Amino acid sequence: MHPALSPTTRRDFVLRTAGALTAVAILPDLSFAAPRMADGPVTIGLIGAGRQGRLIITELAKFENVKIVGICDTDASRRDSGSKRAAGAEAFADHNAMLDKLKDLAAVIIATPTHLHKQIALDCLSAGKHIYCEAPLANTIEDCKAIAAAASTSKQIFAVGFEGRSNPVYKLARTFFRSDAVRDFVGAEAQSFKKETWRFPAPPGSDSTREKAENWRLDPEISLGLAGEMGAQQFDVVHWYTDQAPTSVFGAGGIRMHSDGRTLADSIHCDFGYDNGSRFAYAASLANSFGGRHETLRGTNSAIKLAWSHGWLFKEADAPTQGWEVYANRQQFFNDEGITLIADATKLAAQGNLKDGVGLPHKSLYYALGDFLKSITEAKPVACSAATGARSTTIAILAAKAVAESTLITIDPATLKF
Amino acid sequence: MILLAAHAMGTRFEFVLCGENTAHLRTLGEEALREITLWHDRLSRFEPASDISRLNLSAHHERPTRIDPELFDLLHLCDQLHAHTHGAFDISIGALMQARGLHPPATQPQSTQRKPGPALTLDRSIHTVRLAHGTSIDLGAIAKGFALDRAAAILRDGGITQALLHGGTSSVVALGSAPDSAHGWPITIRSDTEPLHITLCDTALGVSAPRGRSCSPSASTAPITHILNPLTGEPVNHTDTAAIIGPSAAICDAWSTALVVLGSPPHNFPIEYTSHTHNRQVGWRTQPLALAKPRLCLSEI
């Protein structure tokens, strides 16, 4: 049985679903309604206008009544292109200057390099702004603690960008995971594979300091490497689903392709252990792309595979058949047939358009930002609080440390309390 | 010299980058490829999370759909090109392509009939777009060139002076010359009869050819070419190849499709561009003729 579900809870779920076995209506309706903003636009300041900042600008443009009024970046070219993309936004080189000048700013979004999050987050909390901070929350456990402590005493909303928690497919799949459809947790695997150097160009004529700042991900002094920058989101998904914390993590890594002077591993492996004996294996590489980025969680009745825009349920042959499966959309994976997990399936099925729901219509980032806006405008609970984000980030920090030292780390449960 | 490649927009993009510092070339080349995949994610009508898929689902509503300034500028360019090509380049052709079996069928019936009036209504003051009922956007005739323009800008800004970029060989951008040439990058364009040999230097090329792809809408009907005349809804085949050379790969792409439809350049064909069109009866025709000779490198002028 799933450790997070009491017998009553699971029985309730089965009883609820059993009453509707002849219809796809048992699929939860998890459609994403855009936030209501009756009181004028939510004014936002974006801190960090690099690649992630650019994606944030694009996604925010889809929301009605949201206005980016300030763009902040220490780099002039990023600042300029950011303010062009967010038409009408004022550009700043320093976040404190933005906070000083734009007094009416309702919220800030922090999309700077991870190691810079703490001071910016503390300054913005002091200024009384709602905050959405990209994940991972910080690059040290001390910084995580400082942010979580400051957020806990603030009246402002603090959301951490662990996007799986807002992703409609992931939310839907989690309801299956926590039911008899998957049943008892066996173990999990996840991977993030993409062949690329992870190096980014600095503007022409830049000195080595500028070049190093641009490539902070490759600096072992400040970067959590693949475990932190790619793995943290996926670790969070697995632990959010299983509602359990690892008691150990083994890590190893090496340079398999990019022998360009870097010391940070371009290929890593992590193995998390849990009190109940289950395990979670993680691999990431910059030397091969096969399979891309996904997570698989196995139960005794079925497995769930999640790939951010898509999700599938793979049933065991001896798993009980449920009525709605007759209507489900399916996809073949060599010898296995996956049932496509479709958010908002009830409505789509009623319209005869179930196939239209295969694949999310937005990136995960859109839903995470939407949840943050709903927390501001509709007082909805945040999808991932500072404390939860600090906990998930700490797991990634410990995994990164295990990889760097090629060792097994025992995790004291007290380390994960925020 | 290094070669980088990525799959995007239903084809393979390849970059040949020349220079001595291969680490620098790779860093910039990857950044340029990220730009290609970013625009694939945003512009593909086959990606459920793309901006275009979102517009095709939602932009028929009474309320216009808000989009970001970059996408707005692209749609505005498409709107202008639609006017300049007298309707021969038309991004609102998506539903028609679907109805003719050139795209996978939609779950909802697609109409080939749309109400009179503009297919796209753009409002720059609030960055919104609205689609006419019965239309859907397909940027297949411009997206590769648009993405290549953006990628080339990244390479130029990074100081790369010699490179050849292409998407599926039909959209090309050349920076400087090939290492073994003083004139540019030698390119051969196929046609139904004779090939055309050109040299590209600091310019772009867009090629369209109806023979490139065809499909049979049903088992009982003959294959049709993948380029439809937006004005009639019928497949076109009187021009077998159109190649446009000029500053922007996006505009070259759009005009090459338009010239397959139109047959020859109209009076308002942009003066910065050169067209090469081919059909079996007359062979290759180049306009304006003054630019028919291989182009010189800017550095040689």
Describe the overall structure.
The complex is a heterodimer of chains A (418) and B (301). By secondary structure, chain A is an alpha/beta fold. Chain A has a domain of 227 residues: Dihydrodipicolinate Reductase, domain 2, CATH 3.30.360. Chain A has twelve helices and 16 strands. In chain A, the strands form two sheets. Chain A has a ten-stranded mixed sheet with strand order 14-15-13-12-11-7-10-9-8-16. Chain A has a six-stranded parallel sheet with strand order 3-2-1-4-5-6, with helices on both faces. Chain A starts with 6 loop residues before the first helix and ends in an 8-residue tail after the last strand. The N terminus of chain A is likely disordered. By secondary structure, chain B is an alpha+beta fold. Chain B has a domain of 74 residues. Chain B contains six helices and 15 strands. Chain B has an eight-stranded antiparallel sheet. In chain B, helix 1 packs antiparallel against helix 5 and helix 5 runs antiparallel to helix 6. The radius of gyration of chain B is 19 Å and the shape is globular. The C terminus of chain B is likely disordered. Chains A and B meet through helix 2 of A and helix 1 and helix 2 of B.
- Give the class of chain A from helix and strand content and strand pairing: alpha/beta
Number of strands of chain B: 15
Gross morphology of chain B is globular
Query: Can you tell me the residue ranges of chain A where pLDDT is under 50 for at least 5 consecutive residues?
Result: 1-30
N-to-C series of helices and strands of chain A:
HEHEHEHEHEHEHEHHEEEEEEEEHHHE
Q: Provide the CATH top-level class of the domain at 7-17 and 173-358 and 387-416 in chain A.
A: Alpha Beta
Largest interface: pair, residues per side: A-B, 31 and 29 residues
Strand order of the largest sheet of chain A: 14-15-13-12-11-7-10-9-8-16
Radius of gyration of chain B: 19 Å
Report the biggest beta sheet of chain B as strand number plus sense, adding barrel if it closes: 8 strands, antiparallel
Q: Describe the sheet with the most strands of chain A.
A: 10 strands, mixed
Distance between the termini of chain B: 26 Å
